[in-house]
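Predict the assembly for these two chains.
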Amino acid sequence: MKFATRLNNIETSAIRELFKLLGKPGIISFAGGFPDSAMFDVDGIREATNTALTVDPGAALQYGATEGYQPLREQLSSFMAAKGANDVAPEQLIVTTGSQQALDLLGKTMISPGDKVIVEGPTFLATIQCFRLYGAELISAPVDAHGVNTDTLEQLIAEHKPKLVYLIPTFGNPSGALLSLERRKRVLELAVKYQTLVVEDDPYGDLFFGEAPPPSMLALSAQVPGSRDWLAHCGSLSKVLSPGLRVGWMIAPPELLARATMCKQFSDAHTSTFAQATAAQYLKAGRMPATLAHVRQVYAERAQAMGSALRQHLGEAIDFVQPQGGLFFWARLTGAKGKIADGAEFAKRAIEQGVAFVPGVPFYAANPDRSTLRLSFATADVARIEEGVARLAKAL
Amino acid sequence: MKFATRLNNIETSAIRELFKLLGKPGIISFAGGFPDSAMFDVDGIREATNTALTVDPGAALQYGATEGYQPLREQLSSFMAAKGANDVAPEQLIVTTGSQQALDLLGKTMISPGDKVIVEGPTFLATIQCFRLYGAELISAPVDAHGVNTDTLEQLIAEHKPKLVYLIPTFGNPSGALLSLERRKRVLELAVKYQTLVVEDDPYGDLFFGEAPPPSMLALSAQVPGSRDWLAHCGSLSKVLSPGLRVGWMIAPPELLARATMCKQFSDAHTSTFAQATAAQYLKAGRMPATLAHVRQVYAERAQAMGSALRQHLGEAIDFVQPQGGLFFWARLTGAKGKIADGAEFAKRAIEQGVAFVPGVPFYAANPDRSTLRLSFATADVARIEEGVARLAKAL
């Protein structure tokens, strides 16, 4: 069988091979990018579904508008307002099948084969693959603890004239980095100056441990004239409520939103109204603030535990910035005292010791730093985190 | 903003404009392609969800395998077996976000810009648009009451060497046609002879009114050596249980299924596990046979009522074959006695009389027959069908 040429643009994920090993009994996993199932508010979701099936079962089970189930769009508009973006009307967002679909729709709507796209180095693996399937040529912009380097970003935009710039400004995956307020404004100014679409992917922004992060670029766009015309914002309930609902959303300028909606019509018609009506009732019931407070507290403890254990057990062999939110540590092997400095090699030895993580290489669209690795603290409790890090030390 | 060039391949649906008028009070609609909400088994679905959230809430609310939720794949394997395709292992199907997504994944996996694809004339509108977004050049094969004309189909395959042939063999949308047993086997032989992928889209096959239709091409493929290697089959719960769940599936040769799964990973990661677990519990509970019996009976009555009313009120001004299943009448205006012979003109006048349907033109990828129209009998009850057809007569 002869397949479409676009499939030549990507390769099967190296991570997939690693994930097959996770089934081994006794493995402690720092590898996943998912939240802890034990924290799902099952009662709240059950109640929301039952309400949805009682209040308007016809709508919850029938075909719906491609743009999204209107009561959910209204709830999401309020949810965004509570987070500082208080001028997003329900009509300015569409519901997507997880924020992964928002990325797919951006690719389908924006990217012609050969178009350039700037992403962070490192960035979300599925974004790299998603955009490459549409023929994008990816350019990698370097990231430090304060997010993407905006001076380099400007040079890259000027040089490559990209179709879009994709960023995860708040607790990035895998970088854990937090883009500073100053840099956020600078990115918005660059969007206007170069008339370049900037995509703010924000699945982790609600998962902060101490003080709240700077406002989203969406919220800040009100302060940078013209920037809203060049900004798309992707949100998701996956990391804070439940990934299984597959409820995400995208806020974008009207002409982009209209085209993304048209593409969505032929991608999956609409996101499950059953899941959308459930999410709408959940938000309406007012349970989200307590749910957020709970997950923030648990993840904060786990992040704290992982940071302490890494410092204690791995010492100067590893270098990292303690994350202020999200689900990940992004670390670099220093090679100190002749220890391993290659993330992939370390991952292999770690599996033998019964602990898994993802080496950093696949997260780079170009010029990977082989010494890097991503550790998720989301799914193991504090005791397992300490045990897992002790095993890492043995592997090293 | 500059969008992807692929958007130039399609135009906004003419149907969309029509659908905006459906909100007018008092309109009787024969326009929709959706089932009647009043027939949804709400209690059964509520019970299924509650069971799913009790038995394994972690799995129902967490990320899941891109291929689909394993208990659902197992239930769908049994469901297919009960319909005569008794050799489909759970691993030979993937769950899709409605069968619309199966079409999208086929497009993404198979179609390079400029590739040719053969579809029926007329065919499902969203298929036309979906494939065109991937750059397909569509070739239209004529359909009669017994489905696609296989002699012409062979000529077209030989001439155009298409990437795939897309058919809705059982109660087609919009044709209502039923591909005969003999032609089904012939299509499978053509797939083997020309080594051409045939896609059997089958959302309506369960909705038969009298005796069951011929076995699906999937079931028949066992009788045509080699044909299974060139056959993809798309199924859906949308028309028989609930479109709002967005649960469909695709059965395909392993190398195609693997690539479609990879593409799905970057399209929406996976279909809502919440909806999948609900569907799995629904099927497991054994409610489907009664649900199918119910919807078949109601739609059979409505189809009967519409056929009688059309003959009585429109007489020789309209020509159609009484459908043996599905949701649609496909009719042709004869122009007898100087009556209107243009479907679009008739649709406008019908709206003025308070009844809506879809003219046939948009359903053709090429060479539309302007005298055609599609009437759905799914959502109006018998009294409304009779009143609606009487209004059609007035409009004519």
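The mean pLDDT of chain B is 96. The radius of gyration of chain B is 21 Å.
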